[in-house]
Amino acid sequence: MRPVAAVLVAVLIGIAVGFSVPARADEVFASVGTGEPNGVYYPVGKAICQIVNRDFSMDRVRCSPETTPGSVYNIGALQSGELEFAIVQSDVHFAAYKGEGTWSGRPFLGLRSVMSLYPELVTVMARADLHIKDLAGLAGKRINVGSRGTGTRTTWDAIEVELGWRDQERVLPVELKADATTSALCSGTIDASLLIVGHPSPLVKAQLAACAVNFVAMSGPAIEKLLHEDPYYKHETIPGEIYGIVGEVPTFGGRASLVTSASVEPRVVAVVAKAVLNHVAELRTLHPALGRLRPRDMIRDGLTAPLHPGAEQVYKELGLIE
Q1: pLDDT in tens, 301-315
Q2: Is 3.40.190.10 the CATH number for 25-117+256-317?
Q3: What pTM did the predictor assign?
């Protein structure tokens, strides 16, 4: 058998028995840590990877969205090298880089910003029969505040510090995953549920359709103090019309950010950043939470850690920064 024919036969046999052809040396696998499958982070990560992978034949970077427990987990996975990129809340982003809260005394100085994505708002829904309208009405109630290791729980802990509630005033925390909150609220297992989401949210729509609940206004002295101390939070409102209700719900929130580690190769970060910025118009159509993306906001809002050199290079090339 001729040498060329022999090689061809060997390759065909390898494919037939399930062997894979080794990846080229210049191919890079880039995982993006997101969140739970029914949340917003996962479809947003999927949309980003969809755009990045379109140019795989040229850039040789293959992007893959990975489901995770959420922001806090994602930061740890970046530190360990398990993930190359992650979507995280801006308050978690801030705490990790500064060495506060969960990271007290051990800041993740290698954390790097890539871009800001969209506002995500503190969203509290309560059983309608309890007539809870504001933050004070949550005192002593059973509230899903998310499990430890999630950005939702981190935000609630920060709110609770400012409230200063004691004894019977303190809420009874329940630790449920987001996909379990709808049935728990409808059955009366919990009195209220806190989510941190981009709007419109499929999870919020499902909850409103499942049983009688109402939004809780997240405002008042404790929230004002929190916003004064933590610059990554801003006053926001949940627009009622997107959920078929009258008026706006006052609340606050930060932003979802795409972050990475200083150890990730600049070329890889540049490929991801350039793909997203070059296709912002398309990205807006891939998920409702991305509908208001603006390039100049994306390179500034909610970014606590320094820009990764790969992202910075792209933004200079695009004329977004000097």
Answers
A1: 888 899 999 999 999
A2: yes
A3: 0.80
